[in-house]
Amino acid sequence: AGRKASLWAEGDGMQGLGKGQEAAAEIGADAGDLGLNNRGTASNPESAADGLMPGQRLARGVARALRALDFASLEEMIPTPGLRVDLMALGPKGEIWVIECKSSRADYAADRKWQGYLEFCDRFFWAVDGDFPTDILPAETGLILADAWDAEILRMGAKTPLSGPRRKALTLKLARQAAGRLQGLRDPGPR
């Protein structure tokens, strides 16, 4: 309730339900669900007392927002040895999104692996906070504005559908990693 569609219309910089409705239909959500942000950052100060690093706070906010779109997400997902994405999300139609959370310009500049993530998702997004200089991010990638509590999709990433075998393999990896973590929480004993 009280959420508004806020997907930026690509190229014209204007907000509009027309493009938002198209994007919502594409991922199986209502256009009203795309307005993910009810951020209230001034009334919800983020505290280091939560024990999370800045990128982890962004990932938490993005995961909460994606849940509203019926996406299940997993932090620090390993799609293949040597790569670890900040957040991988599985949508209601089987689509796979990768979200990289960047807390500063230096964090972004140090990331040398992000292009290797593109072959493991249907859409790629950057998640950043309101102070991040978004003009340095590649225009063909998605953009999510986030804080520790919520997030808002500002720009959809280019759609590059995965092959069937790759999608199946990634879906199985995501399910097994998530189940393994849940089992570890329930029974932290010997593995």
Topology:
Blueprint: H1 17-27, H2 54-68, E1 72-80, E2 83-90, E3 96-102, H3 105-110, H4 114-117, E4 123-128, E5 142-146, E6 151-155, H5 164-186
Parallel strand pairs: 3-4, 4-5
Antiparallel strand pairs: 1-2, 2-3, 5-6
Task: Give the averaged pLDDT, no decimals.
Answer: 80
Structural class computed from helices and strand pairing = alpha/beta
Order of helices and strands: HHEEEHHEEEH
Which shape, going by the Cα principal axes?
globular
* Biggest beta-sheet profile: 6 strands, mixed
Percent of sequence in beta strands: 15-25%
**Helical stretch tally:** 5
Strand order of the largest sheet: 1-2-3-4-5-6
Give the helix level as a range of percent: 25-40%
Radius of gyration: 16 Å
What is the number of strand segments? Answer: 6
**Span between N and C termini?**
44 Å
Low-confidence stretches: 1-25, 29-47
Please describe what this structure looks like.
With 191 residues, the chain is an alpha/beta fold. It is 31% helix and 21% strand. It has helices at residues 17-27, 54-68, 105-110, 114-117, 164-186; strands spanning 72-80, 83-90, 96-102, 123-128, 142-146, 151-155. The N and C termini lie far apart (44 Å). The model is unreliable at 1-25 and 29-47 (pLDDT under 50).
